[in-house]
Specification:
By secondary structure, this protein is α/β, with parallel strands linked by helices. The chain has helices at residues 2-6, 25-42, 62-73, 92-102, 160-165, 169-189; strands spanning 15-19, 46-51, 79-80, 106-116, 123-128, 147-155. Strands 1-5-6-4-2-3 form a six-stranded mixed β-sheet, with helices on both faces.
Length: 190
């Protein structure tokens, strides 16, 4: 009876926020990634890494930078969105169609930059469910992903296009390194 009073059901958090300036950020991201990957593994799904963004805007380059860095760290065969072949607003619908035609059971991990509050700049958010790319700049794109990883690259709320253009490359590179290393480590241990 006493054990029942003090036992709590295991609750898995739906979202994790990780500050990339923290020394253990890569390991925290890998751990959160593995927690969310349990569902995909149990169902035998192909894990697709979909990195969204363009290299024509510093703030929006988080996705293709992450894809390129991840590809150099891990030989994962299912990656879309690199500096050589970015996935952006123009080709996102065609890329999603290609994924659905090419894979029977895709589990899409969508990676994208986003704007947020000042105190959250440099944080990466990882969670279950889709993300809405282009929302910060009022683009109407399809929601994508079974899981998302977003990097808060700058402040949102005013002149978003200009804010993305004036985002520091150093921050975006550091965040891309953390995400790529976290994904690579998470998949190796997974």
């Amino acid at each position: 009876m006493l054990n029942n009073l003090f036992s709590f059901p295991a609750v898995k958090p739906q979202e994790h926020k990780i500050n990339t300036s923290h020394p253990h950020a890569m390991f925290d991201l890998a751990t959160a990634f593995r927690i969310h990957m349990l569902e995909a593994s149990a169902m035998g799904k192909d894990i697709i890494i979909l990195c969204i963004g363009t290299d024509r805007s510093t703030g929006d380059s988080l996705g293709p930078l992450t894809g390129t860095k991840f590809r150099s760290l891990h030989n994962h065969p299912h990656i879309f969105g690199t500096l050589d072949d970015p996935v952006h607003a123009t080709n996102l619908p065609a890329t999603l169609l290609q994924i659905r035609e090419q894979y029977t059971l895709p589990y899409i991990v969508a990676v994208d930059a986003c704007l947020g509050r000042l105190e959250n700049i440099g944080c990466v958010t990882i969670g279950k469910g889709p993300l809405k790319p282009g929302a910060a700049v009022n683009k109407d794109l399809p929601a994508v992903g079974d899981m998302y990883i977003t990097g808060i690259v700058n402040v949102g709320g005013f002149m978003e296009h200009l804010v993305l253009q004036s985002t520091r490359l150093n921050l975006v590179m550091r965040m891309a390194d953390t995400i790529a290393q976290g994904l690579a480590f998470g998949l190796r241990v997974h």
